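Form 7-S
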Amino acid sequence: MTDAAPRPCATHSDLVAFKYPLPNLSERLKQSRKIKIVAIGSSSTAGVNGVIPYPHRLELLLRNRHYGRMIDVINRGISGQESPEELSRLECDVIAEAPSLVIWQVGTNAVYRKVDYNFDAVQQAIAVGLDWLAGRTDVVLMDLQYTKAIVDHVDLAEDIEKRIQSVADAAKVNVFHRWSLMKRWVQDGIPLSEMDDGVDPHLHTSDWATRCLSAALDDAMAAAPPLPSA
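Output:
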């Protein structure tokens, strides 16, 4: 008896397509064998409950896509944090690494731990962080995961989603729309229960979802708009 085939992964490029080029990363890929990317965020970045987190998976995907390049995705995730705490360590954990790209995962704990965070302060911290990073590196904001613990507070989630997009638009940086992508998977017929790892409080993404999100992010990076012609 053989194991069932793994569930296909639909990355829905129309939902996750980037709006802006990644000039620093693109130039680095042309000029150097070594490329550094920093991923900062909370448990989705750090990894939890035995699920390999997206930074490690993305690193392997990028090395495979760009054969011969030594691409390192440095994991600077700390479980339970949100943008205000992440802002406080941006200088030492991110800027000091001089990366070509920063992926900043935000918003989840603002919703999940809503009594601990003021949404205006969360939005302001993201805006200040983007200002610090401007001109130094490319930036991608990663928004919320579509899992039961967050969907149970969908009004708050949608509020944060709008704030993330607003700050990104003002700074002209890309957003990786994992909220929309995971929501689409559920609309496609994948049970919401399969979006998380099955561990109470059903907050963290499952192995399958994490793998597919990593693939979608890799695809979005590869398909980022080209730099405008001189």
